From TrEMBL:
It comes from Ichthyobacterium seriolicida. Keywords: ATP-binding, DNA-binding, Helicase, Hydrolase, Isomerase, Metal-binding, Nucleotide-binding. Residues 37-206 form the Helicase ATP-binding domain. Coiled coil: none annotated. It catalyses: Couples ATP hydrolysis with the unwinding of duplex DNA by translocating in the 3'-5' direction. Residues 230-384 form the Helicase C-terminal domain. NCBIfam families: recQ_fam (TIGR00614). This is ATP-dependent DNA helicase RecQ.
Amino acid sequence: MSSISNQNSINNDNTPLEVLKKYWAYDSFRPVQEDIINDILLGKDTLALLPTGGGKSICFQIPAIIREGVCIVISPLISLMKDQIDTLTKKGISAVAITSEYTNNEIHGLLQDAQNGNIKFIYLSPEKLSSKQFREYVSYMRVSLLAVDEAHCISQWGYDFRPSYLEIANIRSVIRSDVPVLALTASATPHVVDDIQKQLLFRKKNVIKKSFERKNLAYVVLSEEDKNHRLISILKKTSGTGIVYVKNRRRTKEISDFINSQSISSDFYHAGIDSKDKTEKQNSWKREEIRVIVSTNAFGMGIDKPNVRFVIHMDIPNSMEAYFQEAGRAGRDNEKSYCIMIVNSNDADQLEEMFYNTLPSFEVVRDTYIGLCNYLQIPKGEIIKDKLPFYIRDFCNKKDLNFIKVFNVLRLLHRERIIFFSEREKRQTKIMFNVDSDYIFEYLQVNTYLDNTVKTILRSYAGINSKFVNVDIGLLSERSGINIYDLNKNLERLSKDGIILYDKAHAIQTIKFLVPRQDGDTISTIRENIESNNKRNIDRLNSIIDYVSDNNICRSVQLLKYFGEKQVCKCCVCDVCLDKKRTGVDSKRYLSISDEIKSILNSKAHTSREIIDITKNRDKQELLECLTIMLESGVVKMNEYGEYELQS
């Protein structure tokens, strides 16, 4: 296969379909993919709305291959970056991700390569995009396309607003003005659609949308007080792998352990797990060594597994957008799959209570801002231009404030340009040797495997015997030939044995004030915005509670109408549609008849006539209606001989 490395190699002679066939071996595009690609090739800013599994990446990869230059892809998902880079590299297309795994020197080299025309795709986070180092290099690059994945994150109307996304538009002033932007999302309401285009400085509005309808998904809401029992019942009746979502980290392990106790293989996952363990858990699930992964919403984004047969929510999600995106990870191979939410009588009240406890009113925003200024010792009427380290938990403890509420206030102040709030900023590791050279020599005679680590540190940093020194773990790894994971383990051992004092790098927040401190007057200028933001969030909460509570309107119809689709049809496979189909059969009688049918089919397949003959005492019409319901809901299937058999 030919290689694309020099970005000055123009592929204008190739049509999009020819590129698709050449590198992906597909004979045709999915609906609207070609329309999106053609608009990008014409240089149009474009917002692409595609359902999960709709083939978003091809929409920017193909025009980027055809256009001259390097494509910049902005994504918050490192796992997605790695997957796509691996795929592109195997096709002979040069692609890199600028992440914190690289040292500054390595990043310098990668950006130099891109500047020289040796890289076709650069993947990076919005934080990396706005760094001084990247901006200096990108101004000299020939950029072909700016692709923004998870574009809903840029909108304050969106459910997953990320302040760092607001900085993306600034890069447009650095690159050529004719470089098109492609924004992609699988969940955007009409308000969010407008806001994305505004925030990304679209030269002209341009939206291409494929319906968010997923005909292969059955959306189900089950009312059940004993959720764990119902969960196991579902897992035993369904086949294949799936995801179970819960709200907090502790419950991931508890429920995973419970599933394992029922002889169903399971593991747990959340954001607090070590990155190496995360990768192992993801890969075990993808390889189907385990059947069920129990996780917080930290799992799923950017993980490419098409044959997920079920997604089960044990709690009500915070919004329709969050639910639609998480549920949409099922059935990306277009095979029938289930999206099930198990709720009890207290869930809606608990969600509302948690929501209102963390909703920041104008008064809360004002008081938190004043407390923040006092905590960071900002004089009235003045502005400090430096970035200040900020320890949010320490601030909350000292002021006796709710952590989530404070976090929401900081994001709001960032959006309103009162402060610049960096949610995660890495601080360098600090090391100082705690023993003299003779002791080090004796220690290494016994612990020979640490010899390389210790000597590399001593050679790299002068004065480390007498004072704390900032060390670059990536550089030490490079010089010692030890991978970063093992190097950190070695440093922890040296610290435990008292050889070094080890202040490990960790993520901290920083705050930069953008306007002089005026206390209440500062916040009064944004009072209207605070109140409208709260109203949006309340509306979002009410929408998901209405969805769970409404047992009259098809679940798929409710979801699609929320996202602004008007011409929608009933799905006929959700719990609401199936319940309506049963109106001719009493629910208790349906359960009785369906149990009898399952018993009959347990030993062998039968035609409907044979089943009628076996159940002579049953009403024929009722029995046929029950068979139809069971077929449409996936309880039974029809084989090539026209016989009914149980789903395996």
